[in-house]
Every structure is written in C-alpha cells, then in structure tokens.
Amino acid sequence: MSETRTEISSLGEFGLIDHLTRNFEIQNASTILSVGDDAAVIDHFGKQTVITTDLLIEGIHFDLMYTPLKHLGYKSVIVNLSDVYAMNAIPTHITMSIGISNRFSVEALDEFYEGVYAACSKYNVDLVGGDTSASQKGFIISVTGVGEVAPDKFVKRSTAKKGDLVCVSGDLGGAFLGLTLLEREKKIYLENPQIQPDLENEDYIVGRLLKPEARKDIIEFFEKNDIVPTAMMDVSDGISSEILHICKQSNLGCRLYEEKLPIAELTRQAAFKFGLDPTVCALNGGEDYELIFTLKQEDYDKITLNEEIAVIGYMSELEEGCKLLTKGGNTFDITAQGWNAFRG
Ligand SMILES: Nc1ncnc2c1ncn2[C@@H]1O[C@H](COP(=O)(O)OP(=O)(O)O)[C@@H](O)[C@H]1O
Ligand SMILES: Cc1ncc(C[n+]2csc(CCOP(=O)(O)OP(=O)(O)O)c2C)c(N)n1
Ligand SMILES: [Mg+2]
Question: What is the DSSP annotation of 13-36?
Fold first, then answer.
C-alpha cells in the first residue's frame, strides 16, 4: 500500500464506488449491463442460473492482524466461487458489498480490491455491482455469486445413491493448521511485541488459509470426461460436517476410511508440531474449499487418472449410519464437529 492516506470522506460514497470500479473490464458476453445502474442485467442464453451468497465478518471469519487486505479481497471472492463450482456450474458474475469503518483509507480499500480483481480475472468473472456503507465497527463483506450451468446439469447435495463412491479433491486440514499457527503467533506477539512471528517453512499451511483457490479444474475435468457427480458440495466447515449434510439430505449413511483421507505431508508435519491428530484436522478443520462429491461406481476408471481426486469411502444404507473406519480397524460415528460460527 502507498504511504499516502486518502480519507474516504474526501471522495464520498459515489466517488469511492467510481474509484473502486473505474478500471474493471467486462469479460463475459452474458454481462448486458454492469456497475452504474439500479441493477445489473445478465443474459445466460439458454443456460440455467445458479446464485449463492456469503457473508464475511471481521473477528468471526477473518482477523486483520494477520490477514493482508489483498489476500482478504481474493479469498472473499474465492469462497463464493467455490459454492458456484459445487453446483457443477461456471461462475460468471459477482456482486461485492462492503461495510467499512473510518479506520479504512481509500488506499486500504484499493488493496482489498486488487485482490478482488485478481480473483475475478483469474476465474473469468465480472464484478457487476454491490453496495457500500459505513460500519460502526469492523469490516463486513458480502459477496453474491452468479453462475451458469447447462439445463439440469446442476448437482445437489440430496441425490447421492447407495453404493456411490465418496470422493474429495485436493487435500484437507491445511487451512485449519494455518489458522492455528497464525493465532498462536498473534498471541505470542500480543504478549510480547518484540518477538517476531516464526513462520519459517509454514508457507503451505499459511497459504491454504490466506490464499485459497476454488476447484475450477475439477469441474472442467468433469465436463471433459463426461462425468456428472450424483451429489456435491464444497468443503468450508470440514468434511465431517459436509458428508453429514450429503448423507442427511440423500437419506443415506456412509463409510469413510481414515487411511484414504488426503492430507499433505506439510500439513501432517504441522499437526504433529502442534500435538494434533492430522486426521482430526482433516475431518473437522475448515476452509479447505475443496469439493466433496459422490460418483457412480462405473465412473471409477475415469477418475483414477486425476491425481487431484481421492476416493475416501462409499455411501451406504441410512440404517448403517455415518462411520469412519480407522487405520487401527476401529469404527467411529462421524459427528459434525466442523467449524460453527455460533459455538461460544
Ligand atoms: N439468512 C438466510 N436466509 C435465507 N437462506 C439462508 C440464510 N442463511 C443461509 N441460507 C441458505 O441455507 C442453505 C445452507 O447455507 P450454508 O450452510 O451457509 O451453505 P454454504 O456452506 O454452502 O454457504 C443455503 O441454501 C443458503 O442459501
Ligand atoms: C478469526 C478467524 N476465526 C475463525 C476462522 C475459521 N473460519 C472462518 S470461516 C470458516 C468456515 C466457513 O464459514 P461459514 O460462514 O460457515 O461459510 P459457509 O459454510 O456458509 O460458506 C472457518 C473455519 C478464521 N479463518 N478466522
Ligand atoms: Mg453460507
């Protein structure tokens, strides 16, 4: 960020909006009308439209003490696009609404928007509107994402079938360990500001938390290989919580295998350093922004080629419950211990 500090009041609300949106170029033919009117107009030319919204609140979802604003802008877009991909859809548009306290300067918001625009450009999404308000305390972000999908190719949480394979993209638990590390360093710093944070060799887990990506590649892989998952959702609260949503909404049980859970070596090492069980971090940690989905067994051969997809179990009868088979051969009930903003 530059050294100068421009007060938001010097631009005013409309001047600020013009300033933040002045250089943005439209990338999608479906964007008929963008920023500058009462609403945007989108024409999806015969496709179906998906729409999803997310709220991010300072102190609940992020801590500005260790979150650079550019990363926060990027991540705010990513968490939303991840929900669009989880419907098997391609995101095309977002709106971005912000509530800002007078702590923020125009330069600080410029930095946040640099991240927003970097994500829009990487994922080919147009920012077509939003809202801007003052907030008494704390930074509030609301993102709405719109996407398109071929008629009736969207994938719900409720349509898994008995015997389907349970699959997950990427690896799990890294973001939770990144958060654990940054919270620890914050505490040490607050107790003794002379001590510099020790983040050496922790780039991977910190990156998983601060700069997540959405799994566009997996949705493109499905399209290319003629795969339509039977159910899907994104992993924001931890897979134990997410698989229970799929089971409950599909009226089924499941059996997952501990040894099949994809955990990066660097995540495993970080877990051991903190005295945590990597499996527990993978199951209950949040913010992986991976995709969990179920597939017909006959699609198995198609996915073995993709190293970014792990088969972690299968769907069973409702009466069999939702179980985890451990490496030691024990069976546990999967419980929803994922992240919950309302847990005290
Ligand atoms: N305040 C609300 N009013 C209406 N619908 C809501 C509200 N909060 C959440 N929902 C809807 O409830 C469903 C589950 O929400 P959530 O668990 O937040 O999903 P996700 O993890 O994908 O963001 C979604 O369909 C969401 O749109
Ligand atoms: C200060 C801080 N506290 C907690 C977290 C952890 N965290 C924030 S959001 C989240 C999960 C997803 O949030 P939610 O609002 O449930 O998103 P949704 O499932 O609706 O997409 C987690 C684990 C964090 N990153 N930073
Ligand atoms: Mg939500």
Answer: HHHHHHHHHTT-----TTEEE-TT
